[in-house]
Amino acid sequence: MRCRSRYRSRLSVRGICVGRRRQSVTIKHVAADAGVSLQTVSRVINNEANVRPEMKERVQASIDKLGYVPSIAAQRMSGSRSYLILALNDRERTMENWKAREGNDWVDQMLMGGMLQCAEHGYRLLLELVDTHDDNIQRELKATIAALQPDGVILTPPHSDNPLITDLLEKQKIPFARIGSRDNGGSISLTMGDNRMAAMATRYLIEKGHERIAFIAGAEEYALSHRRKQGWRDAMAQAGLSTEGLCERGDFSYASGEKATRALLSGSARPTAIIASNDQMAMAANAVAHEMGMRVPGDVSIISFDNTPVVRFVQPPLTAIDQPIAEVTSRAVDLVIAAHRGDDLPDMPVVVEGRLIERDSVARPRG
Amino acid sequence: MRCRSRYRSRLSVRGICVGRRRQSVTIKHVAADAGVSLQTVSRVINNEANVRPEMKERVQASIDKLGYVPSIAAQRMSGSRSYLILALNDRERTMENWKAREGNDWVDQMLMGGMLQCAEHGYRLLLELVDTHDDNIQRELKATIAALQPDGVILTPPHSDNPLITDLLEKQKIPFARIGSRDNGGSISLTMGDNRMAAMATRYLIEKGHERIAFIAGAEEYALSHRRKQGWRDAMAQAGLSTEGLCERGDFSYASGEKATRALLSGSARPTAIIASNDQMAMAANAVAHEMGMRVPGDVSIISFDNTPVVRFVQPPLTAIDQPIAEVTSRAVDLVIAAHRGDDLPDMPVVVEGRLIERDSVARPRG
DNA sequence: GTGAAAGCGCTAACAA
DNA sequence: TTGTTAGCGCTTTCAC
């Protein structure tokens, strides 16, 4: 089988033809077909003003007839849009989850919310893994931006709070949304109400009669770790309860959850309930409690943050605070696109609150 | 805060500057810096022959010094590469998994294998959801291709066997890899050895002493459904065992698994083991068996296909055939890139075999 | 309101 | 081996 490209023919391997590919229908064809100038067609595709309705209709008819679709590469070349949104995820954590093959809720939900919303606007979402601790992070990010010229960037924790990243994006004047981060200086930021959610979980336990409610905090470098802890502390204070010796810091890993739980449950004023800053640490708490001969929820109640798929499958299924990742990503997409267009933006941070999903890991304290 | 773009300044909203973005460092800057022509720089970036080592080194030095990265849009405009690989997934199934929030192993593993391998080659992977049953599938795909001009496409089941898709890609001369599909006509195809894997599971059960081994087949439109069934049938025949009344067809859904299992376990020659064509149907089989007062694996052994995260969390954890999705996607990326370059390709289909993961759902049959 | 001309950053084809 | 020229498909600028 020979390659019969109109242009220079290349190799043909096993019948697979590869050649210089050109746009089959270009703006020129449409212009010719509609009998107008290129510019008018361009105006119609971009929905610009100053085109008479009848003209617009005529051009649109040609577009539909010929099945014309603008080339993103060409649009990017001359104009200012690439119709590409870049989503930056933490390399280490993502790879870990993938490799463990225990599911990757964050990426799944982010894609679901982000991809679909991008599609609504005619954009595409491109996922990119970035190593927060890499010294060359700025150089790598610069290269990615230079190559792709994305119209917007979505930052997830812990990148949302990495000044190396945010400074660079600011300098490059690329609109970016920080998920899980509060506003500091004009940029787009979205949170899932960490403070309030932690407080809500705490109050929920207080209402059940708990007084010694412990908290396992997350990694320091995540801003949301601090906010969750603050929410717990505020709710405890408001109820006049002491938090003395009831907080341990983990790093979101299972192992750190085990360690924190052991410390908590071996102390003198053993807590009757534990709130963990993510599911892995909550599952570790559950396992350690069992190990130490305690019943969940009989002796210790547990509430976790995130509500990833796994918490439904441990015994007992964990009561958890759901993180509306899909929704918040979808909003983030809306916002960066709006920013890129120069539209007005709402006050920051935009809050998309989660909710408490009741399962079987919470009960009234004994006695 | 005013926008201080060198070019036409646009709106500035809440301090977010949006302007016409141009490449900060272009091939021209490099050429000027190195004192050579554009073409020479182009040759260096593309690693072409006919450049003297010293020249190459000089140019490379300028590239490094200036931090130059080629614009993909510009490369796509004139050349033949977009450095974009498109991965087409089934919209319905993907959305279902995302919404159920039970994890989406296929997408996760595919991204892991595909993205990382793309990165190795300097490519990016773009995920796109396609509705196989959409009448406009060709029109939509054409539009996507026109807009993105991907250098290659990766097809997953059931798209791999959808002639509307494969014909279009062939016509457009875009290299594509079909995952889960056998070779038919020159194109790139990869399988996970469905036939052999099903036979292996069957033999594994036979060795344990089972004789009445049932099979729950998957949806008709998936070519791999037929191959898995065939593997089971072959292994049974080879061992001189009858398959009479031991096969039910499902559609990969949990509900269809329940129905198939009920039919199987209510029959006269009740099977002592069931192989299900995917995890959902296997979990349904497990649940139905319990419901009908049977023990797993005591009364019925179960083996499932896929080995998604959930099978570890049901009781008992299911013995399963692992699908090496990450690996097969990674190979697919290699192959489409090779095809696009016109390199030689291996014989098709490329087979990346899975393996049996032993857990607790298989035992010797009673008596 | 519409059109003509100039160029975006890069590569293919050809010339030297 | 290297350089020159002419676009790729689109948008911007500016003239009408």
From TrEMBL, chains A, B:
Domain of life: Bacteria
Domain HTH lacI-type: 25-79
UniProt keyword annotations, A-Z: DNA-binding, Transcription, Transcription regulation
Entry-linked Gene3D superfamilies: 3.40.50.2300, lambda repressor-like DNA-binding domains (1.10.260.40)
A molecular-function term among this protein's GO annotations: DNA-binding transcription factor activity
Protein name (record): LacI family DNA-binding transcriptional regulator
